[in-house]
Amino acid sequence: MAHITFIEANGQSTTADLPDGWSLMQGATANGVEGILGECGGSLACATCHCYVDELLAGVLPPPSQSELDMLDNVAAERRPNSRLSCQIKASAALDGGVVHLPECQE
């Protein structure tokens, strides 16, 4: 299980306990976090779950796949070096305490 804090563009913060194997997108939507749409349901066919990961997460996550990098070319908000798609990040104990910032828009 991982305790992940989601910070919406307006500053609203929500910390959620995510079971191992859940994507950050699933955790955000299940906990009512505004700012992650996940229109494709996590099938890596849209970029509406774009997020910015903190240094802790960036340090433990594997690099994005080429498919994720290609999809990140389609984000609506500014793409940054720490941009990721939350549907591609699976919760685990290694992510415990991580913080995810959400962009101002997804479409």
From TrEMBL:
Its cofactor is [2Fe-2S] cluster. Pfam families: Fer2. SUPFAM superfamilies: 2Fe-2S ferredoxin-like. Coiled coil: none annotated. It comes from the Bacteria. CDD domains: fer2. Residues 2-106 form the 2Fe-2S ferredoxin-type domain. Keywords: 2Fe-2S, Iron, Iron-sulfur, Metal-binding. Belongs to the adrenodoxin/putidaredoxin family. PANTHER family: FERREDOXIN-2, MITOCHONDRIAL, FERREDOXIN/ADRENODOXIN. This is 2Fe-2S iron-sulfur cluster-binding protein. The lineage of its organism: Bacteria, Pseudomonadati, Pseudomonadota, Betaproteobacteria, Burkholderiales.
